[in-house]
Amino acid sequence: MKVLVVNCGSSSIKYQLFNMSDESVLAKGLVERIGLEGAVLTHQPAGKDKVVITGDISNHSVGIKLVLEALADANHGVIASMKEIVAVGHRVVHGGEKFADSVLITPDVMRALEECIEMAPLHNPPNILGINACAELMPGVPQVGVFDTAFHQTMPKAAFLYGLPYEAYEKYGVRRYGFHGTSHKYVSQRAAEMMGQHMSNLRIITCHLGNGSSLAAIKYGKAIDTSMGFTPLEGLVMGTRCGEIDPAIIPFLMKKEGMSPDQMDEYLNKKSGVLGISGVSSDFRDIEDAAGEGNERAQLALDVFAYKVRKYVGGYVASMGGVDAIVFTAGLGENSIEMRDKICNGLEYLGTRIDHTKNNVRGKAQEISVDGAKVKIFVIPTNEELVIARDTKAICGSLI
Fold it and tell me: Which residues bind ATP (predicted)?
Protein backbone atom coordinates (compact mmCIF):
# COMPACT_ATOMS: atom_id res chain seq x y z
CA MET A 1 0.00 0.00 0.00
CA LYS A 2 1.61 3.25 -1.13
CA VAL A 3 0.42 6.51 0.44
CA LEU A 4 1.36 9.99 -0.75
CA VAL A 5 1.62 12.65 1.96
CA VAL A 6 1.20 16.25 0.82
CA ASN A 7 1.79 19.50 2.70
CA CYS A 8 0.89 22.57 0.64
CA GLY A 9 2.04 26.05 1.57
CA SER A 10 1.17 29.29 -0.20
CA SER A 11 3.97 28.81 -2.75
CA SER A 12 5.32 25.36 -1.91
CA ILE A 13 4.47 21.65 -1.81
CA LYS A 14 6.31 19.21 0.47
CA TYR A 15 5.69 15.54 -0.21
CA GLN A 16 6.69 12.04 0.84
CA LEU A 17 5.68 8.71 -0.68
CA PHE A 18 5.41 5.89 1.87
CA ASN A 19 5.32 2.14 1.41
CA MET A 20 3.03 1.34 4.31
CA SER A 21 3.95 -2.35 4.40
CA ASP A 22 7.08 -1.31 6.31
CA GLU A 23 6.52 2.48 6.65
CA SER A 24 9.57 3.20 4.53
CA VAL A 25 9.91 6.46 2.57
CA LEU A 26 10.27 5.69 -1.15
CA ALA A 27 10.80 9.33 -2.15
CA LYS A 28 10.38 12.83 -0.84
CA GLY A 29 10.76 16.32 -2.18
CA LEU A 30 9.83 19.97 -2.30
CA VAL A 31 8.26 22.21 -4.90
CA GLU A 32 9.22 25.85 -4.28
CA ARG A 33 8.29 29.28 -5.67
CA ILE A 34 4.95 28.21 -7.16
CA GLY A 35 3.62 31.02 -9.33
CA LEU A 36 6.95 32.85 -9.17
CA GLU A 37 10.04 33.13 -11.31
CA GLY A 38 12.62 30.45 -10.58
CA ALA A 39 10.14 27.73 -9.57
CA VAL A 40 11.83 24.41 -8.87
CA LEU A 41 11.07 20.83 -7.83
CA THR A 42 13.75 19.03 -5.80
CA HIS A 43 13.00 15.31 -5.87
CA GLN A 44 14.84 12.79 -3.66
CA PRO A 45 14.31 9.09 -4.42
CA ALA A 46 15.42 6.82 -1.58
CA GLY A 47 19.01 5.71 -2.05
CA LYS A 48 19.55 7.83 -5.15
CA ASP A 49 20.84 11.30 -6.00
CA LYS A 50 18.57 14.33 -5.84
CA VAL A 51 16.91 15.45 -9.05
CA VAL A 52 16.28 19.16 -9.66
CA ILE A 53 13.52 20.07 -12.12
CA THR A 54 12.95 23.68 -13.12
CA GLY A 55 10.23 25.25 -15.21
CA ASP A 56 7.02 27.23 -15.15
CA ILE A 57 5.05 26.00 -12.12
CA SER A 58 2.14 28.39 -12.33
CA ASN A 59 -0.13 26.84 -9.68
CA HIS A 60 -0.49 23.96 -7.23
CA SER A 61 -2.14 21.71 -9.80
CA VAL A 62 0.91 22.02 -12.06
CA GLY A 63 3.14 21.39 -9.04
CA ILE A 64 1.27 18.23 -8.03
CA LYS A 65 1.38 17.01 -11.65
CA LEU A 66 5.18 17.44 -11.69
CA VAL A 67 5.45 15.54 -8.41
CA LEU A 68 3.41 12.61 -9.76
CA GLU A 69 5.45 12.57 -12.97
CA ALA A 70 8.70 12.55 -10.97
CA LEU A 71 7.48 9.66 -8.80
CA ALA A 72 6.66 7.57 -11.89
CA ASP A 73 9.59 8.67 -14.07
CA ALA A 74 11.52 5.85 -15.79
CA ASN A 75 14.89 7.18 -14.56
CA HIS A 76 14.34 8.70 -11.12
CA GLY A 77 10.88 7.43 -10.24
CA VAL A 78 10.01 4.88 -7.56
CA ILE A 79 6.69 3.53 -8.90
CA ALA A 80 5.65 2.10 -12.27
CA SER A 81 2.61 4.36 -12.54
CA MET A 82 0.37 6.70 -10.55
CA LYS A 83 -2.05 3.80 -10.07
CA GLU A 84 0.25 2.45 -7.36
CA ILE A 85 -0.69 5.42 -5.13
CA VAL A 86 -3.84 4.20 -3.39
CA ALA A 87 -4.46 7.15 -1.04
CA VAL A 88 -3.31 10.70 -0.31
CA GLY A 89 -2.96 12.28 3.12
CA HIS A 90 -2.96 16.07 3.48
CA ARG A 91 -1.72 18.26 6.28
CA VAL A 92 -4.47 20.79 7.03
CA VAL A 93 -3.63 23.53 9.52
CA HIS A 94 -7.04 24.48 10.92
CA GLY A 95 -10.09 22.30 11.48
CA GLY A 96 -11.71 24.50 14.11
CA GLU A 97 -14.04 22.61 16.45
CA LYS A 98 -15.37 20.58 13.54
CA PHE A 99 -12.65 17.93 13.53
CA ALA A 100 -11.21 16.15 16.57
CA ASP A 101 -9.52 13.54 14.41
CA SER A 102 -8.31 12.89 10.87
CA VAL A 103 -11.13 12.39 8.35
CA LEU A 104 -11.86 11.15 4.85
CA ILE A 105 -12.22 14.13 2.52
CA THR A 106 -15.82 14.53 1.35
CA PRO A 107 -17.78 17.49 -0.08
CA ASP A 108 -19.06 18.24 3.45
CA VAL A 109 -15.50 18.26 4.79
CA MET A 110 -14.41 20.62 2.01
CA ARG A 111 -17.21 23.02 2.90
CA ALA A 112 -16.08 22.92 6.54
CA LEU A 113 -12.49 23.68 5.50
CA GLU A 114 -13.72 26.69 3.54
CA GLU A 115 -15.51 27.92 6.68
CA CYS A 116 -12.23 27.70 8.64
CA ILE A 117 -10.34 29.94 6.18
CA GLU A 118 -10.96 33.11 8.18
CA MET A 119 -9.23 31.51 11.18
CA ALA A 120 -6.20 30.40 9.08
CA PRO A 121 -6.16 32.70 6.04
CA LEU A 122 -2.49 31.99 5.21
CA HIS A 123 -2.64 28.22 5.59
CA ASN A 124 -6.04 26.69 4.83
CA PRO A 125 -6.36 28.12 1.27
CA PRO A 126 -3.19 26.38 -0.02
CA ASN A 127 -4.18 23.21 1.86
CA ILE A 128 -7.50 23.29 -0.01
CA LEU A 129 -5.71 23.94 -3.31
CA GLY A 130 -3.62 20.83 -2.75
CA ILE A 131 -6.67 18.67 -2.07
CA ASN A 132 -8.44 19.98 -5.19
CA ALA A 133 -5.33 19.44 -7.33
CA CYS A 134 -5.01 15.81 -6.22
CA ALA A 135 -8.73 15.22 -6.80
CA GLU A 136 -8.35 16.59 -10.34
CA LEU A 137 -5.21 14.58 -11.18
CA MET A 138 -6.06 11.40 -9.28
CA PRO A 139 -9.82 10.92 -9.67
CA GLY A 140 -11.26 8.25 -7.43
CA VAL A 141 -8.21 8.05 -5.14
CA PRO A 142 -9.37 8.60 -1.51
CA GLN A 143 -7.91 11.57 0.34
CA VAL A 144 -7.60 12.20 4.08
CA GLY A 145 -7.28 15.47 5.99
CA VAL A 146 -5.00 15.46 9.05
CA PHE A 147 -5.41 18.60 11.15
CA ASP A 148 -2.83 20.51 13.19
CA THR A 149 -5.62 21.45 15.59
CA ALA A 150 -7.26 18.02 16.02
CA PHE A 151 -5.00 16.61 18.75
CA HIS A 152 -5.78 19.58 21.00
CA GLN A 153 -9.56 19.14 20.82
CA THR A 154 -9.47 17.16 24.08
CA MET A 155 -8.68 20.39 25.98
CA PRO A 156 -11.35 21.23 28.58
CA LYS A 157 -13.23 24.51 28.34
CA ALA A 158 -11.37 25.82 31.37
CA ALA A 159 -8.16 25.61 29.30
CA PHE A 160 -9.40 26.85 25.93
CA LEU A 161 -11.77 29.70 26.82
CA TYR A 162 -10.56 33.31 26.93
CA GLY A 163 -11.78 35.91 29.41
CA LEU A 164 -14.05 37.53 26.81
CA PRO A 165 -17.84 37.71 26.73
CA TYR A 166 -19.05 34.15 26.12
CA GLU A 167 -20.83 35.33 22.97
CA ALA A 168 -17.45 35.74 21.24
CA TYR A 169 -16.97 31.98 21.55
CA GLU A 170 -20.56 31.09 20.64
CA LYS A 171 -20.83 33.42 17.64
CA TYR A 172 -17.32 33.42 16.20
CA GLY A 173 -15.50 30.45 17.72
CA VAL A 174 -12.98 32.66 19.53
CA ARG A 175 -11.06 30.20 21.74
CA ARG A 176 -7.70 28.49 22.07
CA TYR A 177 -7.22 25.88 19.32
CA GLY A 178 -3.51 25.11 19.40
CA PHE A 179 -1.31 23.97 16.52
CA HIS A 180 1.56 21.54 15.81
CA GLY A 181 -0.87 18.87 17.06
CA THR A 182 0.44 16.14 14.74
CA SER A 183 3.97 16.71 16.04
CA HIS A 184 2.91 16.75 19.70
CA LYS A 185 0.95 13.53 19.14
CA TYR A 186 3.85 11.73 17.49
CA VAL A 187 6.61 12.64 19.94
CA SER A 188 4.47 11.97 23.03
CA GLN A 189 3.61 8.50 21.72
CA ARG A 190 7.28 7.89 20.87
CA ALA A 191 8.33 8.98 24.37
CA ALA A 192 5.89 6.51 25.90
CA GLU A 193 7.36 3.75 23.72
CA MET A 194 10.90 4.66 24.79
CA MET A 195 9.79 4.49 28.43
CA GLY A 196 8.11 1.12 27.91
CA GLN A 197 4.85 2.64 29.12
CA HIS A 198 1.37 3.28 27.78
CA MET A 199 0.32 6.89 27.16
CA SER A 200 -2.62 6.41 29.54
CA ASN A 201 -0.16 6.12 32.44
CA LEU A 202 1.96 9.18 31.72
CA ARG A 203 1.98 12.97 32.06
CA ILE A 204 4.14 14.40 29.27
CA ILE A 205 5.15 17.94 28.30
CA THR A 206 6.14 18.21 24.65
CA CYS A 207 8.23 21.16 23.46
CA HIS A 208 8.01 21.75 19.69
CA LEU A 209 10.69 24.42 19.35
CA GLY A 210 11.64 26.08 16.08
CA ASN A 211 10.87 29.25 14.17
CA GLY A 212 7.30 28.51 15.25
CA SER A 213 7.17 27.06 18.75
CA SER A 214 4.58 25.57 21.06
CA LEU A 215 4.29 23.41 24.16
CA ALA A 216 1.58 20.92 25.03
CA ALA A 217 0.51 19.31 28.29
CA ILE A 218 -0.55 15.71 27.63
CA LYS A 219 -2.16 13.98 30.59
CA TYR A 220 -2.77 10.26 30.32
CA GLY A 221 -2.87 10.36 26.53
CA LYS A 222 -5.01 13.49 26.09
CA ALA A 223 -3.92 17.07 25.41
CA ILE A 224 -5.23 19.27 28.21
CA ASP A 225 -3.47 22.54 27.32
CA THR A 226 -1.18 24.08 24.72
CA SER A 227 0.59 27.40 24.32
CA MET A 228 -0.62 28.53 20.88
CA GLY A 229 -4.13 29.96 20.86
CA PHE A 230 -6.80 31.21 18.46
CA THR A 231 -3.92 31.64 16.02
CA PRO A 232 -0.25 30.53 16.08
CA LEU A 233 0.69 34.02 17.34
CA GLU A 234 -0.03 33.32 21.00
CA GLY A 235 2.27 31.61 23.45
CA LEU A 236 6.06 31.54 23.34
CA VAL A 237 8.29 34.20 21.86
CA MET A 238 9.16 32.71 18.43
CA GLY A 239 11.31 33.46 15.41
CA THR A 240 9.30 36.48 14.25
CA ARG A 241 6.11 36.19 16.35
CA CYS A 242 5.72 38.10 19.59
CA GLY A 243 3.89 35.39 21.55
CA GLU A 244 1.76 36.39 24.52
CA ILE A 245 1.59 40.13 25.23
CA ASP A 246 -0.73 42.53 27.02
CA PRO A 247 -3.52 43.16 24.45
CA ALA A 248 -3.53 46.86 25.36
CA ILE A 249 -0.08 47.17 23.76
CA ILE A 250 -1.67 46.77 20.32
CA PRO A 251 -3.88 49.92 20.25
CA PHE A 252 -1.16 51.82 22.15
CA LEU A 253 1.46 51.11 19.46
CA MET A 254 -1.01 51.64 16.62
CA LYS A 255 -1.68 55.14 17.88
CA LYS A 256 1.96 55.93 18.63
CA GLU A 257 3.29 54.59 15.30
CA GLY A 258 0.24 55.38 13.15
CA MET A 259 -0.10 51.76 12.07
CA SER A 260 -3.06 50.26 10.25
CA PRO A 261 -4.48 46.87 11.34
CA ASP A 262 -2.58 45.14 8.52
CA GLN A 263 0.67 46.88 9.51
CA MET A 264 0.10 45.89 13.13
CA ASP A 265 -0.49 42.29 12.08
CA GLU A 266 2.81 42.27 10.19
CA TYR A 267 4.57 43.90 13.16
CA LEU A 268 3.39 41.18 15.54
CA ASN A 269 3.81 38.21 13.19
CA LYS A 270 6.87 39.07 11.11
CA LYS A 271 8.93 41.71 12.90
CA SER A 272 8.77 40.59 16.53
CA GLY A 273 9.96 37.54 18.47
CA VAL A 274 13.68 36.83 18.77
CA LEU A 275 14.22 38.79 15.54
CA GLY A 276 12.75 41.89 17.15
CA ILE A 277 14.58 41.45 20.43
CA SER A 278 17.99 40.53 18.99
CA GLY A 279 17.96 42.72 15.88
CA VAL A 280 20.09 39.97 14.35
CA SER A 281 17.92 37.24 12.82
CA SER A 282 14.90 34.99 13.30
CA ASP A 283 17.21 31.98 12.99
CA PHE A 284 18.33 30.76 16.41
CA ARG A 285 21.62 29.52 14.95
CA ASP A 286 22.53 33.06 13.90
CA ILE A 287 21.47 34.40 17.29
CA GLU A 288 23.52 31.81 19.16
CA ASP A 289 26.56 32.71 17.04
CA ALA A 290 26.04 36.42 17.72
CA ALA A 291 25.60 35.80 21.45
CA GLY A 292 28.84 33.82 21.44
CA GLU A 293 30.59 36.87 19.98
CA GLY A 294 29.32 39.06 22.80
CA ASN A 295 26.13 40.54 21.28
CA GLU A 296 24.07 41.43 24.37
CA ARG A 297 20.72 41.71 22.59
CA ALA A 298 21.25 38.32 20.97
CA GLN A 299 21.96 36.83 24.40
CA LEU A 300 18.87 38.58 25.76
CA ALA A 301 16.71 37.01 23.03
CA LEU A 302 17.96 33.55 24.00
CA ASP A 303 17.39 34.28 27.69
CA VAL A 304 13.82 35.45 27.05
CA PHE A 305 13.00 32.40 24.95
CA ALA A 306 14.39 29.91 27.48
CA TYR A 307 12.61 31.69 30.33
CA LYS A 308 9.25 31.54 28.54
CA VAL A 309 9.63 27.82 27.81
CA ARG A 310 10.59 27.10 31.42
CA LYS A 311 7.63 29.18 32.64
CA TYR A 312 5.19 27.14 30.53
CA VAL A 313 6.77 23.88 31.71
CA GLY A 314 6.17 24.92 35.31
CA GLY A 315 2.59 25.88 34.56
CA TYR A 316 1.87 22.58 32.86
CA VAL A 317 3.37 20.62 35.73
CA ALA A 318 0.85 22.38 37.97
CA SER A 319 -1.99 21.76 35.49
CA MET A 320 -1.29 18.02 35.35
CA GLY A 321 -0.40 17.55 39.01
CA GLY A 322 3.11 16.42 38.08
CA VAL A 323 5.11 15.29 35.07
CA ASP A 324 6.80 12.06 34.01
CA ALA A 325 8.60 13.19 30.84
CA ILE A 326 9.65 16.33 28.97
CA VAL A 327 10.27 16.02 25.24
CA PHE A 328 12.21 18.35 22.93
CA THR A 329 11.49 18.27 19.20
CA ALA A 330 11.50 20.30 15.93
CA GLY A 331 14.45 22.25 14.50
CA LEU A 332 15.64 24.01 17.64
CA GLY A 333 14.50 21.38 20.13
CA GLU A 334 16.20 18.55 18.23
CA ASN A 335 19.44 20.35 17.39
CA SER A 336 20.33 23.02 19.94
CA ILE A 337 22.35 21.44 22.72
CA GLU A 338 22.79 24.85 24.35
CA MET A 339 19.09 25.79 24.34
CA ARG A 340 18.00 22.47 25.84
CA ASP A 341 20.56 22.92 28.60
CA LYS A 342 19.47 26.52 29.18
CA ILE A 343 15.79 25.57 29.44
CA CYS A 344 16.39 22.64 31.80
CA ASN A 345 18.77 24.61 34.05
CA GLY A 346 16.39 25.38 36.91
CA LEU A 347 14.04 22.41 36.57
CA GLU A 348 15.96 20.33 39.13
CA TYR A 349 13.09 20.79 41.60
CA LEU A 350 11.09 18.39 39.42
CA GLY A 351 13.57 15.62 40.11
CA THR A 352 15.36 15.86 36.80
CA ARG A 353 18.64 17.06 35.38
CA ILE A 354 20.28 16.91 31.96
CA ASP A 355 23.22 14.58 31.48
CA HIS A 356 25.66 16.75 29.52
CA THR A 357 27.23 13.80 27.74
CA LYS A 358 23.86 12.39 26.64
CA ASN A 359 22.71 15.89 25.65
CA ASN A 360 25.52 16.11 23.08
CA VAL A 361 23.14 14.89 20.37
CA ARG A 362 21.38 16.36 17.35
CA GLY A 363 18.46 14.96 15.39
CA LYS A 364 18.45 11.58 17.15
CA ALA A 365 15.92 10.02 19.52
CA GLN A 366 17.61 9.75 22.89
CA GLU A 367 16.99 10.18 26.60
CA ILE A 368 19.20 13.02 27.86
CA SER A 369 18.36 13.04 31.58
CA VAL A 370 20.76 11.68 34.20
CA ASP A 371 20.44 8.03 35.14
CA GLY A 372 17.68 7.41 37.67
CA ALA A 373 15.99 10.80 37.13
CA LYS A 374 12.39 10.87 38.37
CA VAL A 375 11.37 12.91 35.33
CA LYS A 376 12.79 11.73 32.01
CA ILE A 377 14.00 14.24 29.39
CA PHE A 378 14.06 13.20 25.74
CA VAL A 379 15.15 14.49 22.36
CA ILE A 380 12.83 13.00 19.74
CA PRO A 381 12.85 14.07 16.07
CA THR A 382 9.29 14.70 14.98
CA ASN A 383 7.73 12.83 12.07
CA GLU A 384 4.44 14.49 11.18
CA GLU A 385 4.45 12.90 7.72
CA LEU A 386 4.47 9.40 9.20
CA VAL A 387 1.49 10.26 11.42
CA ILE A 388 -0.38 11.53 8.35
CA ALA A 389 0.50 8.36 6.42
CA ARG A 390 -0.63 6.13 9.30
CA ASP A 391 -3.92 7.97 9.70
CA THR A 392 -4.51 7.82 5.95
CA LYS A 393 -3.88 4.07 5.89
CA ALA A 394 -6.20 3.52 8.87
CA ILE A 395 -9.03 5.52 7.33
CA CYS A 396 -8.66 4.32 3.74
CA GLY A 397 -7.73 0.70 4.37
CA SER A 398 -11.30 -0.54 4.02
CA LEU A 399 -11.91 1.57 0.88
CA ILE A 400 -9.05 0.18 -1.18
Answer: 14, 208-212, 283-285, 331-335
